[in-house]
Design goal:
Layout: H1 3-16, H2 25-48, H3 50-59, H4 73-82, H5 87-102, H6 109-127, H7 135-156, H8 163-195, H9 202-205
Helix pairs in contact: 2-4, 2-5, 4-5, 4-6, 4-7, 4-8, 5-6, 6-7, 7-8
Length: 228
Amino acid sequence: MTASSVSSSATDAQRRRPGRLRWRVVDIVVASVVGVAVGLVFFAWNLTSSPVRDLLEVLLPGVQGSVHGVWLIGGVITALIVRKPGAAIYGEMVAATVSALFGNEWGPLTLLSGAIQGLGAELIFALFLYASWGVGAAMAAGAGAGVAMVVLDLTLWYAGAGALFATVYAISGIASGAIIAGLFSWLAVRALAKTGALDRFAAGRERGDGAYDDEPESANAPDGAAAR
């Protein structure tokens, strides 16, 4: 048996393991902590991003969507760490709630954005049957959150916008979701895994070859504008 077949068998066994999609106490705690941390990032971005967004809008109306991917990070990074159904929605909603509680210009509608954007990422991970967590899946999920953001924003905040604005905003928003929320979240999780902070999770034990360094996690272990 070759090394690659052994690695593939280990990965397949991990994916088929009973209970791998069941939430543990540690999953809830860590997902909540990550959501709150991202919510603080949202709050800081709310305070500092207006000049950047305004400048981009002057240069080309709609291209401000290229920096809106920051508001899509919560769902993607939480799902990449926890790897459980509902993690993307949960992470984005927690982050949106923190942002709304600290105060922003969108008020309670921030929660609507969080739910819709989290759902956009969640649907992509669900299409992968919660079994693919590589950079491709992460970027696809970020793009999915971007699609959800664009649809909501063009309906709620930019209703009646012209075709050029809508097209530019859609392209920049989806690309921003794929790169900022998708690629950057994947890189962040990889960096955290190297520190040992995620050793309780498959994301922390997974090596670059797709195999795992130790035994599977125990199912019984104790333990809008975007969503802004």
